[in-house]
Design brief:
mainly alpha, Rossmann fold, Serine Threonine Protein Phosphatase 5, Tetratricopeptide repeat, five-stranded parallel β-sheet, 48 helices
């Protein structure tokens, strides 16, 4: 294949394929205007890869879930038995090969990754041949397929796979412009002048005047399709420079108009044939021919279109270019389009293609039609059963449009918005709701509309969404009326959103507590009712009075009998309630179970939330290495999900950064405060302020810490920010404000005595020791360390050693002080808590002599986060396939990372790896 002027692009594709032959994978989006040569470049790559898979987007399939993915992996379906069970089940349901519960998009994506990646041959044998996967006209893929393949593109690494996309320059999906975010892209522009002239000269038989050729090249912008078509259509005189050229030359939108003019020149029967082919793209030949007969057409009617090179082959044709199909369909009258859709619907009788029949009937409708609307509604539910929430939203939207009754139409529109929300098309959901007068809806539908609007606005980052989210959920709970189960779910959602917006929420905690109490019976049962009872009791009765009800709610959320789906839906509330209880063990167990559940079900957005909460939890406990694991996993996952840099701003962890106290930390955390305030994320705003106060304490800026913490707590009424009380006690005392320190410690005593947890009792004794006379202080410090030993809170125990050591130095007990400070420094340096480590070093330097326990970078810290994750799972006995499923990679990529781990650590087997990592962690 000769590609004029595309030497650089061809060389880039050759380089990707060469890299793939050595086991490296790559993905690339070729983006450009229609006719610029994207498909030609993709065909060039296909000619250089013997193991190729190709799928082209087809516009009529955009509303059928996983249609394109199914077509792409059909050659590999015979190998599906080697997939992990959960991935196999998800893929088979998505592709219509089996019945089952709606599959999670990311389990389907992982199954596609595993199939496309194949498996390596045993050690010592040659790797499998390069596999090229081509996705042309990606703008017309169904949304589920495009999201799945984009996920695959972002997770490829060491499989010898090249995944190429062809995408129109204006081809970003309006419902989600970021679907291919994170996948490398190359813009394909028009040909350079010399190459454009060479192409034009090559495609014509007559003599081409050089000046005229250059003019044509400029007029077309070097678009190869425009050049080729003009070369065939211009006369010898026009090409030779003796006859004027048409102006303007057909290019871009004018190219489509050019095709429309050629179509208009065809006989009426030929235009009908073309319209039938355009409306029925992807339809089997016998069915297309049957529909043609219903329209009174014969095969001979197709001949003029073939002669004019608008199409190739015989019906069903291949259109010369997608713009031809667009021009055919867009240029037809509404009546003509309805007629061909009606004919196509009449040829579909099997249940397996009932979705297509319903869609053609909808396109054939010339006004409201309840029968067709009801059929679309039923088919929408069938699409949802295959995990096609986008298709469900589209079917329900069209169903609403065809519904004669205004009330029923509004209800269907709300259902369409719910489906769009489930598909992640939050903007579409809001547009659908904007077309509904919510106050006129019946109660349950109004409740659904309010809940959908609340979640859609929150997910789009609308500040009013965060601010009004809880209020909308409370209104939804009231609208649900006697449906107390849905009403309780709405209030649980309100609790979560209010916790997120906190002081920036439009509703107060007492308002939510009142609604929660209304929905709680005399003997609360069921996880949601127990959550509401716990929230209402804690808000109304205070810390001591509310904790028993909160404890019962936590028991329900952590009950092993609770389903994975129910657990993940209540994770945020569960983590918050565990924090109120100071129950670190329960929180750790909840997060571990949620992580397992999210991985098992492929719920990657839920898994991202687990990692986010895990980072916050372990930072609070001072377990910064475990916080790093969650943070690194979250970063990898967000990259795989295609999260943009702007979206990632919300997922930063300023509290982890403040413990590390790197350069410029205060400026970056200050910027995060501004983002959180703008987005009405009051909870993150408060948490970040608490983190800055911790940094101030570490750097001995006690007055600043005290002032910040006084804005978070309400002295005399311990509430949510009980974690701030020991910080406030230390800051206030060191700032000379003994009265505030005593009040904070008294509140902390209420909390610790109510919950009875070792960490709470430990920090209480630590705070009391700060205030105690010398005769009592040492006993309190030792008791604090005893409470904090054996628990999960590395940070609080290290700080107890630090404070004890500082006290001992002031008591002139230098040897004892050095021992305590040395222990603290070892603990701080072990997790790279630089701010507290430096405070400890200063104390040691004041004692004189060398500073103990310098930080030594271990072999494990030399591993990348991905390598460290693979190493830990391999150490724990995971096979490559199990590690791949756990980390959402292919087995080949796991093998690649594991070989690098072996080389870095100097081991040759998993058994040696276990011993090496145990040495590093002891």
């Amino acid at each position: 294949m000769r590609l004029f002027g595309r030497e650089a692009e061809c060389a880039a594709l050759d380089a990707l394929l060469t890299e793939a032959r050595s086991g490296r994978s790559a993905s690339l989006v070729l983006r450009g205007e229609p006719g610029v040569g994207k498909t030609a470049l993709l065909r060039y790559a296909e000619g250089r890869a013997p193991d190729s898979l190709w799928v082209s987007g087809v516009e009529p399939e955009t509303d059928f879930p996983y249609a394109a993915l199914h077509r792409l992996v059909i050659p590999l379906v015979a190998d599906r038995a080697r997939l992990p069970a959960t991935q196999l089940a998800a893929l088979e349901v998505a592709c219509g090969l089996a019945d089952g519960p709606p599959p999670d998009l990311y389990l389907v994506s992982l199954a596609a990754l595993t199939l496309l990646a194949g498996s390596r041959r045993p050690d010592g044998q040659a790797p499998p041949p390069t596999r090229l996967c081509v996705v042309d006209d990606a703008q017309w893929l169904d949304r589920e397929s495009l999201r799945a393949l984009a996920f695959v593109a972002r997770r490829l690494h060491a499989e010898g796979v090249v995944l190429l996309f062809g995408l129109r320059a204006e081809g970003d999906r309006p419902d989600d412009p970021g679907l291919l975010a994170g996948v490398p892209a190359q813009e394909i522009g028009g040909l350079a002048p010399d190459a454009a002239v060479a192409l034009l000269t090559d495609v014509v038989d007559s003599v081409v005047d050089r000046a005229r050729a250059e003019h044509i090249a400029r007029a077309t912008g070097g678009n190869p399709l425009a050049l080729t078509d003009l070369g065939h259509e211009l006369t010898a005189g026009q090409l030779g420079g003796t006859v004027a050229l048409p102006e303007p030359a057909p290019i871009g939108s004018r190219l489509e108009a050019h095709y429309a003019a050629r179509i208009d020149g065809c006989p009426p029967a030929t235009r009908t044939w073309l319209l039938l082919a355009a409306a029925g793209a992807g339809t089997a030949a016998d069915r297309l021919t049957a529909a043609a007969r219903l329209l009174g057409l014969t095969p001979a009617d197709a001949a003029p279109a073939e002669a004019d090179r608008l199409v190739t082959g015989s019906p069903p044709w291949t259109f010369r270019h997608p713009l031809v199909r667009s021009a055919v369909y867009g240029g037809a009258t509404p009546a003509a389009r309805r007629a061909v859709h009606r004919a196509l619907a009449a040829t579909i009788t099997g249940e397996g293609e009932a979705d297509r029949r319903a869609w053609h009937l909808a396109a054939a409708a010339d006004g409201p039609d309840e029968a067709t609307a009801a059929e679309l509604e039923m088919r929408a539910d069938r699409a949802a059963a295959r995990g096609g929430h986008t298709a469900r939203a589209t079917f329900l939207t069209r169903s609403a449009e065809l519904t004669p009754d205004p009330g029923a139409r509004a209800v269907r529109q709300v259902r369409a918005a719910e489906a769009a929300l489930a598909a992640g098309a939050y903007g579409q959901a809001l547009l659908l709701l904007d077309g509904v007068a919510e106050q006129t809806l019946p109660g349950p539908a109004r409740g659904s509309a309010l809940m959908t609007r609340s979640l859609a606005e929150v997910n789009t980052g609308t500040p009013d969404g965060q601010r009004l989210g809880a209020a909308r959920c409370l209104a939804a709970a009231r609208a649900f009326g006697d449906d107390r189960e849905r009403a309780r779910r709405a209030v649980v959602q309100a609790i979560e959103l209010a916790r997120s917006a906190e002081h920036l929420s439009a509703v107060s905690e007492p308002e939510i507590a009142a609604e929660a109490a209304r929905l709680v019976g005399p003997a609360p049962a069921g996880v949601d009712e127990l959550i509401l009872a716990g929230y209402a009791a804690f808000t109304t009765d205070g810390y001591s009075g509310g904790l028993p009800a909160v404890r019962r709610a936590v028991a329900a959320i952590t009950d092993p009998a609770l389903s994975d789906e129910a657990l993940l839906a209540r994770l945020v509330v569960g983590v918050n309630f565990c924090t109120l209880l100071w129950d670190d063990e329960a929180k750790d167990g909840l997060l571990r179970r949620a992580e397992t559940a999210a991985r098992r079900s492929g719920a990657l957005h839920a898994l991202d939330l687990v990692h986010y909460l895990g980072t916050m939890t372990w930072t609070l406990l001072g377990g910064l290495n475990e916080a790093d694991r969650h943070d690194a996993a979250g970063l990898r996952l967000r990259a795989a999900l295609g999260m943009t840099a702007d979206q990632a701003q919300v997922w930063r962890h300023p509290e982890l950064a403040t413990w590390r106290a790197g350069p410029g930390i205060r400026e970056s955390v200050g910027a995060a405060l501004g983002v959180f305030e703008t987005l009405c994320l009051g909870g993150l705003h408060s948490w970040t302020r608490l983190s800055l106060a911790v940094l101030d304490n570490a750097e001995s800026q006690y007055g600043a810490a005290r002032d910040t913490l006084l804005g978070l707590v309400e002295l005399g009424r311990p509430h949510r920010y009980a974690d701030a009380l020991p910080e406030l006690a230390e800051a206030a005392l060191r700032a000379g404000d003994r009265r505030t320190a005593k009040l904070a410690t008294a509140d902390l005593a209420v909390v610790a005595e109510a919950c009875g947890m070792p960490r709470a009792l430990g920090v209480l004794d630590r705070s009391r020791a700060l205030l105690a006379p010398a005769a009592e202080a040492e006993t309190l410090y030792r008791r604090a360390i005893e409470h904090l030993t054996g628990g999960l809170s590395n940070g609080d125990r290290a700080r107890a050693h630090l404070l004890y050591g500082e006290w001992l130095r002031r008591q002139r007990r230098r040897r004892d002080a050095r021992e305590q400070l040395g222990t603290a420094l070892t603990m701080f340096e072990g997790v790279r808590a630089e701010a507290f480590a430096e405070r400890t070093r200063k104390e040691l330097r004041a004692l004189g002599g060398p500073v103990l326990h310098p930080v030594r970078e271990t072999d494990e810290t030399a591993l990348t986060p991905q390598e460290a994750a693979v190493a830990r799972l391999a150490r724990d006995g995971g096979t490559n396939a199990e590690i791949a499923a756990h980390l959402f990679l292919s087995a080949n990529t796991v093998d690649y990372h594991l070989r690098k781990v072996y080389r870095k650590l100097g081991v040759r087997s998993r058994r040696q790896l276990r011993g090496r990592l145990q040495d590093l962690t002891t």
